[in-house]
Design goal:
With 180 residues, the chain is α+β, with helices and mostly antiparallel strands. The chain is built from 5 helices and 7 strands.
């Protein structure tokens, strides 16, 4: 696979409770790969066990205000997206907002444009739901992601705390205002 591969096919499909175990596996794999080098083993283990416990993911999948999507690259599971509206949002951003809680791509599929596909899917959902803003939290030290979101029209509008195990970290809140 090369960047800009014109033979790639990307599919984005909504997931259900039937995908619970696969969702857990890709969540742990992608989160761990993304953040393992910047966090202690203990904090990483504590976070993964809490955030991606089957009961927690089951609760998230059953919330009518949250949606999960898997991205497939040439029919292989490559990443996923989670979006929230209404009271499922991690911050009180109002009824006119949609939160992108997670965009994660497996390491071997990064730099192939999948993040853009998933981000555009979230924006499409926001427009379908007549939302005026899309927002997300991104770790202040994740410079690649911050650069990507800026390139996609997001601006920093604040920050909030994120806990990795017992360590408090800072996420930038970034917002994109939609033109309908």
């Amino acid at each position: 696979m090369k960047r800009g591969d014109t033979n790639m096919t990307v599919k984005i499909e909504k997931r259900t409770m039937e995908d619970l175990k696969t969702l857990q596996e890709i969540s742990i794999e992608t989160f761990y790969a993304t953040f393992k080098d910047q966090n202690s083993r203990e904090n990483m283990k504590a976070y993964l066990e809490k955030a991606f416990h089957l009961k927690q993911l089951e609760k998230e999948l059953s919330n009518i205000h949250s949606q999960f999507f898997f991205a497939y690259y040439n029919n292989e599971l490559a990443g996923y997206l989670k979006v929230n509206v209404e009271d499922a949002q991690g911050e009180k951003m109002g009824d006119e907002s949609l939160e992108i809680e997670r965009i994660y791509i497996k390491e071997k599929f990064q730099k192939h444009g999948l993040g853009k596909y998933l981000l555009n899917k979230a924006i499409e959902i926001a427009r379908e739901c007549n939302k005026k803003k899309v927002w997300l939290g991104v770790w202040e030290k994740n410079e690649n992601a911050i650069g990507f979101y800026k390139k996609m029209g997001f601006v920093q509008a604040g920050f909030h705390s994120f806990y990795m195990g017992d360590e408090e970290q800072t996420d930038f809140i970034m917002i994109k205002t939609l033109n309908h």
